[in-house]
Amino acid sequence: MIRKLCKKIGIHSFLILMSVLSLFPFIWLISTALKGIDENIFQYPPVFIPKNITFENFVGVWKKIPFLLYFLNSFIVAAFTVILNLLFSSLAAYPLARMEFKGKGLIFGSILATIMIPFQAIMLPVYLIVLKLHLVDSYGITMGYLGLILPFAVNAFGIFLMRQAFLAIPKEMEEAAFIDGCSIFNIWRKILIPMTTPTLAVLAIFTFIGSWGEFLWPSIVLTNKALYTLPVGVNDLQGMFSANWRYIAAGSIISIIPIIIFFVTMQKYFVSGQNEGAVKG
After folding, report:
1. pTM for the structure as a whole
2. Which among 25, 40, 113, 204 has most CB atoms closer than 10 A?
3. Rounded percentage of the chain residues whose pLDDT exceeds 70
4. Could you give the CA distance from residue 230 to residue 71 in angstroms, rounded to a whole number?
5. Nearest to 269 by CA among 212, 200, 169, 211
């Protein structure tokens, strides 16, 4: 009994320690954002609780950059990226899960292999393609949005997740619908999609978080400040020779609020969707 209790205490202590370490950057971010100009944010040993808590940095960063414009840009890019991922991933996953055709295993294996390739490795050719197709902001606002959205409109992880979810659905349901005269597309739309809503929610959460927080690609593609997303806009606070880290911290906190709201809204589907996408291979 004592040995079992000690084991539980050790496991929970380790988990608490890992949680604190994971939350440390966020705690430091909040501490920096709440400190006034009279406090040294780089002092050693570090002080996490400000002497005089102030919200002036949040007000200042809101006035310093057009936050609403950057928020709108990020929302448009993230929303369309999520919608296209849900659509294309489920469409691509359906034949890989339900149809039999020559080379299906090879195609699925090739799709999974792309997960091992980091985006930085293919960023240059993707940028050249975007440039050749005139999908950059110099050709208009619409093209600027497309240049941010289309390279991330579908990914191997989404296809894999949806395929696993489709495999978990009994095939007899589709066969019954097909006998009743339902087309393949309607089977996908009216039967499979409603039954995989939790998995779609999981994919939407991961896609939204990835798109909302993407910094590298927008910073390369965008030159027009009117199209800046929040990460690029907040980074614009950092000058060549100086940076107001209090403003940057405050801006970063504001920019992650939509992610938290989106996750809290969708969290009831999260655990069930993860399990649904991993029960069958």
Report:
1. 0.83
2. 204
3. 93
4. 6
5. 200
